[in-house]
Structures are given as structure tokens and as C-alpha cells.
Design goal:
The complex is a heterodimer of chains A (about 550) and B (about 325). Chain A is α+β, with helices and mostly antiparallel strands. Chain A folds into two domains: about 160 residues, Beta Polymerase, domain 2, CATH 3.30.460; about 325 residues, Cytochrome-c3 Hydrogenase, chain B (Orthogonal Bundle). Chain A has 20 helices and 15 strands. A five-stranded mixed β-sheet of chain A has the order 1-2-5-4-3. With about 325 residues, chain B is mainly alpha-helical. The chains are: A alpha+beta (about 550), B mainly alpha (about 325). At the A-B interface, β8, α8, α9 and α11 of A face α6, α9 and α12 of B.
């Protein structure tokens, strides 16, 4: 479907609800709709077109446009463009209809907007708190502009989070908030009958860091890439590239080709080590520690390689808006090639071993089913969606960096289960080796040193951009509305776990308790990505360093 | 002289001292092998190549704070580790290591000791269940129930498997069974299916991967041991090691011809044969993923039990034919 088709369809169906449209950037369509018409508009996009829901973004625009705004983001993967439904909410009593009854995947986005901006969504099926801590006072909305990022509201410990009631005849098994298998804090409350999971409730967002708020209020365009990289400890480079792409898109900055290839190489190295890490963790979850030990051993040379290229094993600090900070010299290319070839050989051996392993297949097959329809409903992304035979990959659908110049396949499977996700990840890694090798060829051709474009003017305010970058866990979406003072007006990060995590209840219902960890593991959850958004108090800004002796004396006192 | 011998038997070999020292050694071997399978080095620092690491771990755990949960059934909670440890230590005494004469019966070697040792080895499973019950913790309760479910899965195939060599030898006394196979080594080959079943069910009894379902840390934290710490946890860990030694010894006595030749050669045979069993157990641990409890039950009853029954039928027919 072309943009014109969509526009005429929406115009015809919505009538007076359609307020106008623009094309801020070539791959975007911006449609303003009246609040009354938004549910119908979403229904048309979701049910009658191949559009895929991404995320909803709330924005406090009372200063500039006298309104709160909610943007519902969709993508047309095969036609390579995004469409945004722009809904205006009243600046004093913001209230718009909820779209969660049409798209289940909008559940979290809307609750997040409600928590942080105070925009109410009518008819939301599950209006409980999502982001804010239990003791956060009601009616205090941290993402509103008048709320200072360093402000610390009073605690209200008497407020309690209400979990779902036990279904009759069930007992509660708590997986979380701290549980051996989850590296980060998260809470799955299982309602079980014997070993069977009847229902599940989720409470998360224990680790918000207020990164988006910092982007709105204190950081500048040059600092945010480094902050963005700290969103995630494993796929940080993805967020970093996503943000740089946003600004480059919005301000129409051309990146040197060499920088594109360097970014591509780093993104793929990240995918390789992330998938190796995942396979190991998955093995550990089902008690197969040999897989863990072997894949992590293979992963180690890649980590050293990253350190050699960037100076760090992780959190590379490579990107700036306009390009990258370090070149990959030609002298390093042969070593990267050798490491790639070695790992590829070992990875093929892993594939061989995993493919025919009886116990692995017993544990992974027909477990954690999420089919095509379910993925569409929850807007699931990445290997979860690809294992449900959905051919989607931001690298192909919205080519960025140098992905238009390299040849690779999008791996899909049709088994809808954990096994499918495993196979997709293993085969995807093989494609990554190909991409790195092709990018290295390109690096040998391109002139050394041309890696960054100097930006001479300010980034103009009021520009809009969306970027989608394929992280190892799925598609990472960033949204940007540029503002004054050399910083964004609104920057929204939707990491891949954000749409994937709410699918867990559907996947585990009816399964055994023993399968829950591997099912949760199968989406490769990354809670710190998902939970970016509580305000952290930095106090007076004074830093005090505690020495080992002081710390030990504390320990002695408390023991 | 006999009194002295019995005291030595109880306290030194194969009694308390030997079982303690050898079980820590076996744990070290197991850890080293497991590490080798995974391209790791395993323990390296305590003693030569970390050989004293299991003892260091034991001592350290003994010194740790021992917490009893407020809600727990305290008497039961405290008694269970001792009960379980005692039962496997007693089982160790029944191994025919010192080659008592076939005719002389004593408190540690008598007609029917094979049944007693099998039951003594099963007692820890009930102890684990009680431990889970007494802990008043959700994870411990699930772990405890899983222990029992697992027991129902492997216990019958295991008993059938260890009875086959006894039926073949025509005796219920371990020393006599071992003596029979020492006299007819080729008859060991008859029990090959039962041997496989016995090894697999021993792995299940020891609750090691792929059968570590009751205390799978990624599912139920520590299972029945979730609330245990310090001394009591040390006892549970020691008992698991001793159970491995005794289980391996039982398999060696039944399926590998026992430990002939008096004290010194018998001792060497014991070490060699149990280490062979431990090697198989370690390898199994390294190359499998954990099964689910329902998969374990169906595997047990679909494959292990019929295989053990088939073995018994073979043994009965062969016995008739050979006589």
C-alpha cells in the first residue's frame, strides 16, 4: 500500500474525524485525527491494512502548542514507511479514548503515558499503575515539563499495588522480584494448580532511571548518545545508533559512508555476542550448563575484539551525531576476519550439536506458543515474531547504516515456540558473520579517516523523526521531537522487550511451572531497557568516594 | 580380633572416615570432569589442582550462620539432615568392600542386605520431602513434592534393575552376588540392560542433571534446600556426595564383579570401579538438559521400567537354560 492509498482510505472512512496530514520526512506520514475518531482509525490500520503497531508516545506540548499530544506509531514494513496518528488532548483535563481494546499491545504504552503525563485513557481494560513505584504519590506526573528532574516527591508507603485475585483453587508461586534466573528485578506472579500455570500477573519497572527525562531537561544532543548507550548493557550500541539516526534524520545530516559501515560492523558484532550470550543463558535455564560454558567461551574473543576496536568490551562510546569517533584501521581488518572465521566454524559446530540434541528438543519444542495472530495483536518483534513466520527485520524493512549495501537473509521459522526462537537466533548469527565480512570488504575500499560529518548549524526545533534499528532482541524504535536549547523536546525509546514482555501471560498460561523460566528467557528479556523512566535524584551533585576500609567497617557494624 | 575388625569397619574403612574422605575426593573428580567437558579448569586453588576444595567448601559451610525460618517446624527441620546423613552412612557399611568370607554372616553382611541397602539409599528422598515440608517455604514445598514424584518415577525401575543380577546369582547377599560374578565373569554381560537402567536411575536418585528437577535453581530456587544454610546445608551436601559413593559402590558390587582379593587389592578395585561409574555420571550431567517432571515420569515408565522387566525375563530364562 502506498501512502496515498492509506490517506484516501482514512479520509473516506473517518470523514470529519480526519483533520489533515503531512509528510515531515520522506519515510513518514503524519495524520492528525480527532480524539473521537482515533479508535476507528486504529481499527482500520490494524485490521484492514498490513500496518503493524509500534508504540504510543505521549508528549507534554503545553508550552509550545497548548496541548498534550499522543502519537500512535505504526509501520508499513514492506512499503518502508511509518505512519503516525496524532491525537490532541486538552491541556487541563487530558482525556482520550483508549485503543487497547483494539490492539492489546497498546496496553503498556497507554498506562505509561497515564503514569508519567497524567493523560487519562477512557475504557482502558487494565488501568493499574505500570511505571511508577508503589509509593509514588498520585497526581504527580514526572514527565510533565514543570516537574524538575531532580525533584523527589514524598513517599506514600500506604499505597499498595493490587495484584489479580487468585483464580479459585490456585496457589501463588512468586518468580521475582529477585529470582535466580532473572538477572534483573522483575516479578512474575504465577497462579498455579500443582505444576500447571493457570494465570500470571506481572509487575515490573523496578529499575527505572529517568533517562528520557534527562534527555528532555539536562542533556544535550552530543551527550545523549552516551546516555542512550547506557540504556542497555548488552545492546547499548543499538540505542546509540538509534538516537544518532533520529537526529541525523531530523536535521538531514549526511553520514560518511565509512561511518555507516563501521556502525554496521559494530551492530553485527553486538548481535553475535548477544546471541551467543542468549544461547548460553537459555542452556543454563534448562540446566544444560555445558552450552553456557561453551558459548560464552566462544563469545570471549568477540568481546576482546570489541575492546580492540573501541577501547571497551561493552558500552563502546563510538557514536556521535554525524558519524563515529574511531576508525577501524585497515591493519585491523585481517584480525577481525580471522576471528569471524574462527567463531563461524565453532558456531556451525554449535548448530550441529543443538540441532540433534534430544533433551534440548524435549524442553524447547511446543513450549511457549505464540502464533502469527498473537504476535500481531501484541505487536511482538524480533526473534519472537520471526519464529512465528513473520518476515520482519528493520534491517530489510527500514534500511539504515549500510544494510542496503550488504547481502543477507531474514531468518524465519514457523514453529511458534521456544525452539523456533532458538533456531532463528542461531541461524541469524551466521548471517551476521556474512554481514561483517562484507562490511570489511567495503572498509578496504573506502578512504580511511572520513568517519564524521561536522555539524555547523543548530539542530532546528519542531522536527520529527522515527528510527527503527534491529537489536538482537528485536526492533528498537526511537521517536524524537526536536526542541530548543540544543536538546529534544520529547525523546521516546521503545526497546524490543517492551512489546515482547506483555506476551508472556499468553505464552505461559496452561504450561508447567518448569517451563516458565525458559519461556520468559525465550524473548531474551532485557528489563533495564524496558524500564528507563523514573526520576533519579542526583542531590547536590557532590560526589563522595567510599574506600574499601570504610565499606568493610560498615559491613562489620551491620553483621 | 573380630571386634577390632568391626570397629575398623565402622569407623575407618568403609566407615565414617573413609566415606567422608573418599566422597570429597569423588566430588572433586566429578567437578573436574564436568569442568573438562565444558572447557573449564574447575577448582584449582585449594590443594594440588584444587583437590581439597570440597573439604574447604564443607568446612566453610559448617562455619556459616545457620538460620532456621521462623515459620518452620523446628524439630523436623533440624532432625532431617541428621536422619538422612545417618541413613546413607549406614548404607555405606553394607557395601561388601572388605570381602567378608561368603559363609560368615555379620551385622554388615547378611542375606537380604541388598534390599536393606536399597531402602537406606531411598531414605534421603523422604528426608528431602520432609525438609521441604518443614521449611514452610513455597519453593521448598514444590521441591519436596517433586522429590516424591521423582521417587515414584525411578524407584521401581531401579529396584527391578538391581534385582536382576541377584536373581542370576541366586542370592540376596551382596558379598555372595559379587562372588558369583567373580567366579563367572562372562555372566556380567547378561545384565547389560539392567546396568544401563541402574546408572540412569542412580543419576535420578542423586538428583543430578538431567534429573535435578527437585532443586532446579532456575525454577524453584533451591527446592527442598531453599531455607537451609550453614551446618545443615553442609550435611545435605556431604550426604549427596556419600550417596554417590555408596550408589556407585552398589553398582560396582552388582554389575562389575565387586572388589575381590582381600584388603589392599579390594580397596584398589573399589576406587577404580566407583570412579568408572562416577565418570559415566559426570558425562551424563555434561551432555543433557534438565527434563521436566512429566517428561521424566513418562521416560521412566515408557523406557526404563519395561527395559528392566525385559532384563528380568532374560535373566530368568537364561538361569533356567544354564542350569
Amino acid at each position: 500500500m502506498t501512502k496515498q492509498d492509506i490517506l484516501s482510505l482514512l479520509k473516506a472512512k473517518l470523514g470529519a474525524g480526519f483533520m489533515g496530514s503531512t509528510e515531515p520526512i520522506h519515510d513518514q506520514l503524519w495524520v492528525e485525527v480527532k480524539p473521537e475518531a482515533v479508535v476507528q482509525a486504529v481499527e482500520i490500520l490494524h485490521r484492514q491494512t498490513p500496518a503493524r503497531y509500534l508504540v504510543s508516545v505521549g508528549s507534554d506540548e503545553r508550552d509550545i502548542k497548548k496541548r498534550f499530544a499522543v502519537y500512535h506509531l505504526f509501520t508499513f514494513d514492506k512499503d518502508h514507511f511509518f505512519i503516525t496518528l496524532d491525537v490532541t488532548a486538552d491541556p487541563h483535563t487530558p482525556r482520550i479514548p483508549s485503543i487497547t481494546n483494539v490492539i492489546a499491545g497498546a496496553n503498556w504504552s497507554e498506562r505509561e503515558i497515564r503514569d508519567l503525563l497524567g493523560i487519562q485513557f477512557e475504557n482502558h481494560p487494565d488501568p493499574r499503575r505500570l511505571i511508577l513505584a508503589d509509593d509514588w504519590p498520585a497526581e504527580v506526573y514526572p514527565l510533565r515539563k514543570e516537574f524538575d528532574y531532580s525533584q523527589k516527591p514524598e513517599s506514600h508507603p500506604e499505597q499498595a499495588y493490587k495484584f489479580k485475585d487468585n483464580p479459585p483453587g490456585t496457589t501463588v508461586v512468586a518468580m521475582g522480584p529477585y529470582f535466580p534466573v532473572f538477572e534483573e528485578a522483575t516479578y512474575f506472579r504465577l497462579y498455579v494448580e500443582g505444576e500447571k500455570v493457570v494465570d500470571v500477573d506481572y509487575r515490573g519497572f523496578y529499575a527505572h532511571r529517568g533517562i528520557e527525562k534527562l534527555g528532555d531537561q539536562t542533556l544535550t544532543y552530543n551527550q545523549i548518545p552516551f546516555m542512550a548507550e547506557r540504556i542497555c548493557g548488552i545492546c547499548g550500541f543499538v540505542h546509540n545508533v538509534s538516537f544518532c539516526k533520529l537526529v541525523e534524520h531530523a536535521a538531514d545530516i549526511k553520514v560518511p559512508r565509512r561511518a555507516d559501515f563501521i556502525r554496521t560492523i559494530m551492530l553485527e558484532l553486538e548481535r553475535i555476542h548477544s546471541h551467543a550470550l542468549w544461547l548460553g543463558v537459555a542452556g543454563h535455564i534448562i540446566g544444560f550448563d555445558t552450552v553456557l560454558m561453551q558459548t560464552w567461551r566462544m563469545r570471549e574473543p568477540i568481546m576482546w575484539l570489541c575492546e580492540k576496536i573501541t577501547g571497551n568490551r561493552k558500552t563502546y562510546g563510538m557514536n556521535l551525531i554525524g558519524g563515529v569517533r574511531r576508525d577501524i584501521p585497515r591493519t585491523l581488518v585481517p584480525e577481525i576476519r580471522t576471528k569471524m572465521n574462527n567463531m563461524e566454524k565453532e558456531w556451525l559446530a554449535v548448530l550441529d550439536a543443538v540441532k540433534d540434541d534430544t533433551t534440548l528438543r524435549m524442553r524447547l519444542e511446543k513450549v511457549g506458543i505464540l502464533n502469527k495472530e498473537g504476535c500481531h495483536e501484541w505487536a511482538a518483534v524480533g526473534p519472537v515474531a520471526r519464529a512465528a513466520d513473520l518476515d520482519m527485520d528493520a534491517r530489510k524493512d527500514h534500511p539504515y547504516c549500510a544494510y542496503d549495501a550488504v547481502d543477507f537473509k531474514v531468518i524465519t521459522a514457523d514453529s511458534n515456540d521456544v525452539w523456533g526462537r532458538t533456531v532463528v537466533r542461531i541461524l541469524e548469527t551466521l548471517e551476521s558473520f556474512k554481514i561483517v565480512n562484507q562490511s570489511l570488504d567495503a572498509l578496504m575500499e573506502l578512504p580511511e579517516g572520513d568517519i564524521i560529518t561536522e555539524i555547523r548549524q543548530d539542530i532546528p526545533a519542531g522536527r520529527i523523526a522515527i528510527s527503527a534499528v534491529e537489536a538482537p532482541r528485536g526492533e528498537d524504535v526511537h521517536f524524537l521531537l526536536t526542541g530548543g536549547n540544543n536538546r529534544p523536546e520529547r525523546w521516546r525509546v521503545r526497546c524490543p522487550t517492551y512489546p515482547n514482555l506483555p506476551t508472556i501471560p499468553d505464552m505461559v498460561r496452561g504450561e508447567q511451572v518448569a517451563d516458565v523460566p525458559i519461556i520468559v528467557g525465550s524473548i531474551d528479556p532485557c528489563f533495564s531497557c524496558t524500564e528507563r523512566m523514573e526520576v533519579v535524584d542526583v542531590d547536590s551533585g557532590k560526589i563522595r568516594i567510599y574506600g574499601q576500609e570504610e565499606l568493610s567497617s560498615w559491613t562489620a557494624k551491620h553483621s | 580380633m573380630d571386634i577390632l575388625k568391626i570397629f575398623l569397619y565402622l569407623l575407618v574403612y568403609p566407615g565414617l572416615l573413609f566415606l567422608f574422605v573418599y566422597s570429597t575426593f569423588v566430588e572433586w573428580v566429578d567437578r573436574k570432569l564436568y569442568a573438562k567437558f565444558q572447557n573449564r579448569m574447575g577448582p584449582m586453588h585449594t590443594g594440588s589442582h584444587g583437590i581439597l576444595q570440597p573439604i574447604a567448601d564443607f568446612v566453610k559451610l559448617m562455619a556459616k550462620e545457620d538460620i532456621v525460618p521462623k515459620e518452620a517446624d523446628k524439630k523436623l527441620f533440624n532432625a532431617v539432615p541428621i536422619l538422612a546423613l545417618t541413613s546413607v552412612l549406614t548404607a555405606g557399611l553394607l557395601l561388601p568392600v572388605w570381602h567378608f568370607s561368603d559363609t560368615f554372616q555379620s551385622a554388615t553382611s547378611f542375606q537380604g542386605d541388598i534390599i536393606v541397602i536399597a531402602y537406606l539409599l531411598s531414605l534421603p528422598s523422604f528426608a528431602y520431602f520432609l525438609a521441604g515440608w518443614a521449611s514452610a517455604s513455597m519453593y521448598a514445598a514444590i521441591g519436596g513434592v517433586r522429590v516424591l514424584t521423582l521417587l515414584f518415577a525411578y524407584e521401581v525401575p531401579m529396584f527391578l534393575a538391581i534385582l536382576s543380577p541377584a536373581v542370576m546369582a541366586g542370592s540376596w547377599r551382596l558379598a555372595e552376588i559379587a562372588a558369583y560374578y567373580q567366579a563367572n565373569p562372562w555372566h556380567l554381560l547378561i545384565n547389560i540392560f539392567a546396568f544401563a537402567v541402574a546408572i540412569i536411575t542412580l543419576q535420578a536418585k542423586l538428583e543430578r542433571v538431567p534429573f535435578d528437577i527437585p532443586h532446579a535453581e532456575t525454577e524453584v530456587v533451591g527446592g527442598a534446600f531453599t531455607e537451609y544454610s550453614g551446618r545443615k546445608l553442609a550435611m545435605f551436601r556431604l550426604l549427596a556426595d556419600i550417596q554417590m559413593v555408596v550408589g556407585a559402590g552398589l553398582i560396582a558390587a552388582l554389575f562389575m564383579g565387586g572388589f575381590p582379593g582381600g584388603l589392599i587389592p579390594g580397596f584398589i578395585w573399589f576406587i577404580v570401579k566407583t570412579l568408572v561409574v562416577v565418570f559415566i555420571l559426570s558425562a551424563m550431567r555434561a551432555v543433557t538438559a534438565r527434563l521436566r517432571i512429566d517428561q521424566m515420569i513418562s521416560f521412566s515408565w515408557k523406557w526404563l521400567a519395561p527395559l528392566a522387566l525385559l532384563q528380568l525375563v532374560i535373566v530368568i530364562f537364561l538361569k533356567g537354560y544354564l542350569q
